[in-house]
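Final report, results section. Input specification for complex C-07:
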Amino acid sequence: MEYEEKTGRAHRPLSPKQNVRKNLDFEPLSTTALILEDRPANLPAKPAEEAQKHRQQYEEMVVQAKKRELKEAQKRKKQLEERCKLEDSIGNAVLTWNNEILPNWETMCCSRKVRELWWQGIPPSVRGKVWSLAIGNELNITHELYDICLARAKEKWRSLSTGTAEVECEDAGFSAADREASLELIKLDISRTFPNLCIFQQGGPYHDTLHSILGAYTCYRPDVGYVQGMSFIAAVLILNLDTADAFIAFSNLLNKPCQMAFFRVDHGLMLTYFAAFEVFFEENLPKLFAHFKKNNLTPDIYLIDWIFTLYSKSLPLDLACRVWDVFCRDGEEFLFRTALGILKLFEDILTKMDFIHIAQFLTKLPEDLPSEEFFTSIAAIQMQSRNKKWAQILAALQKDNREMEKGSPSLKR
Amino acid sequence: MSSAEEDYNFVFKVVLIGESGVGKTNLLSRFTRNEFNHDSRTTIGVEFSTRTIAVGDATVKAQIWDTAGLERYRAITSAYYRGAVGALVVFDITKHQTYDVVDRWLKELYDHAEPSIVVMLVGNKTDLAQAREVPTEEAKMFAENNGLLFLETSALDSTNVEQAFETILKEIFQKVQKQKQRSSQSSTVSLGSESPESSAPAQGEKRPCCVAI
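Structure output:
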C-alpha cells in the first residue's frame, strides 16, 4: 500500500480554497474570539487599572469557556455511554429473538415474556421477520403471484405511456382514465413519501421498489386501487422486508378489517370506528374529551391521517416503527390506543387550546417526541370500557349502525 | 440514465458507515462525481450514488449508500444493510474517538449484513497530517487482526479514494467469481432496480444481478 507516497503531497500546488479545510473543530473552541491584546503601539497605552480589569475579564471568560467545554465533553461522553447501552440491549434482544423466539414462534409468540420484549421494540435486524409472522398471509399470496401482478402493472403502464388504445372492458368499471389518474397519483405520492430520507424519491435506491409494490397492488386489488396513505405503509414495509415479502405483508395488512374500512373509504364503517374510539376517549380522558366536544373537534380531523398511514407520516420514524411493532402484536385496537396515548401525553397543552390550535397541533406533532414518555402514556390507556373490550364495543356500534341503516337508508353517507 | 450507464454485468451494493463528520459523504462524492464540498452539511437521509467501473473484463456498477440517517433513525438500519456485499468503515485519523468506535460499527454491520460481506477500514483526512491522532500502524494492525482491508484516504486531495473503492470492488468481484466456480447454480439476487416504465425486458446476461456471496 502506498501511504509513503504522499509525503511530497504538501508541496503539490493547490488552490488556496482547496488548501485550507474549513475545520473549526481544530481551533480550540474556547479561545476563538478571546484574545487579550494590548493597544496598538500608535495609541496611548491602557491605564493600569483598565488593563487589570480587562485581564480579569479575559480570565473569567476563559474559565467560563473551559467550563462550558468540559460540560460539553461530559455530555458527549454520556451520550456515547447511552448509545452503547442501547446498542448492547438491542444486541441482547437480537439474540433472544433469533435463538429463542423465532424458532419456536407458534408456542412462544403469545407468552408474557415475549409480549414484554415485544413492547420494548423489535430490533431492526429481526423486525421484518416478526412483522411478517405476526401479519400472517391469510391471502396465501406467493412470490409468483407478486411477479404476475407486477408484470400486469408494467403492461398497463406501458400501454398508458405509449398511448395505445386500451383493450376495452378488461375489467369493467375501471376506465383508462381512472388508471391513469391512479398512476399519476402514485408517482406524485412516491416523491412525497419520507422525502427527507431520500430513499424513495426519483433516483433513490427504493424508488422503483415502492413503485412496483403499489402498482402490483392496484392490479391485485383493482376494486381498492391506490389510495393515498398506502405509499407510506408500503415504504415502511420496504425498509424492513424484501420486495415480494413486503408485498405479501402489504396486501395482508390492508386486508385487515380496519384498514379495509379506511382504504375503501367505507364512510359508515369509519364513523363506527371513530365512535368506538370516542367511547374509550371519554373513559380514559374525560376532561379532554369534554374540551374537544365543546370545541366541536371531531376525531376524523386527526385520526384519518394517523390511521391511514399507521402513524408513519405523523410520528418520528423510529417511534412509528415501534407503534407498528405493537400494532402487529395487538391489532387495530392498538392504533386507537396510540391515538389516546398521544392525547394523554399532551393533555395539559391541548386543554388550553382552541379548535384551530388543537387541529394544527395534532396534525403536526412535535418532532422531538420523547419515546419513553410516549410509550408510558400509551401504556396508561385502558382499553376496557365498563368491562367491555374494544372488539365488543365496536361490534355493538356496528350492529346499531346496521339497524339504523335499515330504518332510514338516507342516513347512510 | 444513459444507456452506457446501464451496461454492466454486476451491481454491488456498498455501504459507508462510521461516525458523523468523518467524511463519508465527501468520499462518496469524490469517487462518484470527483467533487469535494467544504461546507457539506450533515447527511439527513440516505445519499445514494452509483458509478460503473471495469473490473477485469467485467463491468461493475457500484451502488453506494451513505447515510447519517443511520445515526438518526434506527428504523432504516435494516434497509441500509440489506443486500450489501461491501462496506467501508470510515474513521477520521485526526479524531481518535471516531476510531475507538469502529468496533461498534463493525458489530452493527455483522448484526445486519451477510457474514461474507467484504469490509474495508478507511482512515480518512490524511491531508490533515499535522493533526493526526491515529497512527497508521495502529489502524493497520487492527484491520489485519479483524480480517479487514485497510487504506488511508483524503477525500479533500483525492489520495487513495479511487484505490479504496476499486480495491473493495475487486475483492467482492473475486469472491463472486470464486463462488460461481464453486456452485454453478448459485442463488442470485437481483439488486438491479427494475424500472417499471422500462419497456425493454431484462436481457439475460445483461440483467443486473448480484450474487449473494
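The radius of gyration of chain A is 29 Å. The beta strands of chain A are 384-385, 388-389. This concludes the modelling results for the funded period.
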